[in-house]
Amino acid sequence: MLIGIDGNEANVKNRVGVGVFSYQILRALHHQNKTRHFLIYLKNPPLPDMPKTNQHWRYLVIGPKTLWTKIALPLQLAISKEKTDFFFSPSHYSPYPSSVPTIPTIHDIGYLHSPDTFTKKDIYQLKNWTATSIKHAHHIIAVSEFTKNEIIKTFKVSPDSISVIRNGVGKIPVISPSDELSVLNKFHISLPYFLTVGTLKPNKNYSFLIKAFAKFLLISSSSHLKYSLVIAGKKGWLYDDIFATVIKYNLQNQVIFTDFITEKEKWVLYKQAVATVIPSLYEGFGIPVLESQRLGTPVIASNIDSLKEILDDSALYINPRNSSSLVAALKKITNIDTRFKFRRMGIKNSRRFTWIKSGHQLLRLFDHLSGV
Q1: Which of 79, 119, 194, 268 is the 20 to 30 A CA-CA neighbour of 261?
Q2: Which of 321, 324, 302 is nearest to 311 (CA)?
Q3: What would the pLDDT profile of 194-244 be if each residue is shown by its tens digit?
Q4: Cβ atoms 339, 9 nearer than 8 A
Q5: Is 80 exceeded by the pLDDT of residue 331?
């Protein structure tokens, strides 16, 4: 069996979102595979940390880079003498037209619910290219039951043509006390602080979080503790209101923006936080909540279906449109007994999700689709 894979989302230096999924799923496939053959298609040569080539794993760099999924890749698949049995895309975008059966991965369809929270260019590509990928797919992967149900309702796809393969949690690096001190000093963070992790974009609901944090500071002003809010993530799009909200509530000294963070920096920030807060209006999955739990840091999360699916009863839930709900949760999680309760439940919950498990499920799906 020869399986083609679009490796471009994984082959970037600063991986977030789909890039994390792509990279981790490639590593899991590479680690577990013993018999199948993989050909990874790229626009650029593989980065040093990409899985190493061997008798079952090869890379092919092709161009032109412009409209790569629509021109270079379909042409290569059509003219190559080496025919792949399937072509797997860790992202929404499969090659089209395609001379081989395609398997795209749909992470969410939030862009259809809130098109005004995306740039015109992005919404056009998301709507049209995703719809094309789904319409012409041989099989579809969804990262959650929530996303699977969204696809079925929106695109009228048969449930049998969609498999759910969830995200996992990556390996926690060794963190020394000097690492912790270095990271906190780098971003000028003092304890205690609340943390949120994710790209600065509208669905993350950061303006709402900042407003609620401002109210929390008012009710906790009698405490000797001075809380901060750390927002760890690179700038995405339509983020001006986030910075404007900080200024509006005069929180320039209490709200800290890190921009992009490395893997080690991310784990340090999780480890030292009072809690990780994910107040999203929409998510297809939500990797940060599981990463936080794996380290024993409790989670405050929106009571949206995708997050409830993976968290069950292991998190403290809030209404992402009601600031009083979040203020109450922030206050509640400062109690040591409450933190211990959600720490214990969170660690147990996070152990259900591993990239090894995700990779194993994907390999089994490839075998099933090929009749092995």
Answers
A1: 119
A2: 302
A3: 999 999 999 999 999 999 999 999 998 767 789 999 999 999 999 999 999
A4: no
A5: yes
Who's near 296: CB < 8 A, 6+ residues apart? 343, 346, 347
How far, CA to CA in Å, does 234 sit from each of 50, 260, 283? 22, 4, 17
Q: Which of helix, strand or coil describes residue 61?
A: strand
Q: Report pTM.
A: 0.93
DSSP state of 304: -
Q: CATH classification of 177-350, choosing from 3.40.50.720, 3.40.50.2000, 3.30.1490.100, 3.40.30.10? A: 3.40.50.2000
Distance CA 227, CA 235 (A): 24
- Residue 341: which residues within 8 A CB-CB, separation 6 or more? none
Cis peptide before 279 (omega within 30 of 0): no
CB under 8 Å to 304, separation ≥6 — which residues?
280, 281, 282, 283, 320
- The residue written with tokens 């929404």 in the block is 92
Give the DSSP letter of residue 97: S
Alpha carbons 203 and 282: distance in angstroms, whole number: 6
Question: What does the alpha-carbon distance between residue 255 and residue 194 come to, in Å, rounded to a whole number?
Answer: 10
